[in-house]
Amino acid sequence: MVVGGPDVGKTTFCQYLFYRLRELGVRVAFLDGDPGQSTIGPPTMMHLSHSIDPLLISSEPGETHHWFVGSISPSGHMLSMLVGAARLVNKANELGAETIIYDTSGLIDPAQGGVALKRAKIDLLMPVIVFAIQKDRELDPLLVPLRLIKRHRIIEVVQSPSAYRRDITNRQSHRAWQYSQYFTGARLQRIDWSRTAIIPMPRFALDRLIAFEDQDGFAMGLGIIKAIDRESHTIDVLTSLSSLAEVVTIHIGDVYVDSQTYRDRRV
């Protein structure tokens, strides 16, 4: 597990670990755990893959799994983050991963629950090694107790000099690009919501982002609500999925996405 605040180079370090282990012949899985600045899939989700090459990811869908968080931030969605991490780690083990690299989100502020979330992830997943990347002891509230407990090996990593700070505008632009790539070739599909489980409740709104989930609770894909007919209990959804036959659950997110600009905003 790799922990650290935003813009300290966590993802770059995780990618280095991934390729280095793969060169050594280790069957390694990559858990992309930042729903706001994801690496191997669209925002609002956590992703698990045995590859971080976009071409291989798209050609090997059976080995890529997604968990819908429903937001671009862990705040207000920490239970889903924990459940998703556990489910994806279990799936990686089922698929034969020998090592799992978990690239966590940059939320570390104790006042926002960042330390509590990281501690809960560590207690739940029991990583053998916790890599910590920090600028100025900001991870001490997390690391000091862990060192005394001695349950995990703690390795501090010097922040990469190539790490750079991305402001809110840059982050939103990056997400818009990811949405635009994901929804390339998408088409409208009409759904009778009375025949499908809705989480948390059928409170639909235009441009609301939703996820289509399978029998196991993993996200099959995303959709943007474009029309609502409450009398016939139908919605028209823009989605890249060619078929919704295996959809068991529609999970309503806490994000709106403009299907013209692909700019998002939180509910």
Short structural description:
With 267 residues, the chain is an alpha/beta fold. The chain has six helices and 14 strands. The longest helix has 17 residues, at 78-94.
Write the layout of secondary structure elements.
Blueprint: E1 2-4, H1 10-23, E2 28-32, E3 45-49, H2 54-59, E4 64-68, H3 78-94, E5 99-103, H4 114-125, E6 129-133, H5 140-149, E7 153-157, H6 168-182, E8 187-192, E9 197-199, E10 208-213, E11 219-229, E12 234-239, E13 249-257, E14 264-266
Parallel strand pairs: 1-6, 2-5, 6-7, 9-13
Antiparallel strand pairs: 2-3, 3-4, 8-12, 10-11, 10-13, 11-12, 13-14
Helix pairs in contact: 3-4
Walkthrough of the structure:
The protein is an alpha/beta fold. It has two domains: 2-157, 3-Layer(aba) Sandwich (Rossmann fold); 184-266, Elongation Factor Tu (Ef-tu), domain 3 (Beta Barrel), CATH 2.40.30. The chain contains six helices and 14 strands. The longest helix is centred in the N-terminal third of the chain and has 17 residues, at 78-94.
How many structurally independent domains?
Answer: 2
Helix content: 25-40%
Oligomer: single chain
Structural class: alpha/beta
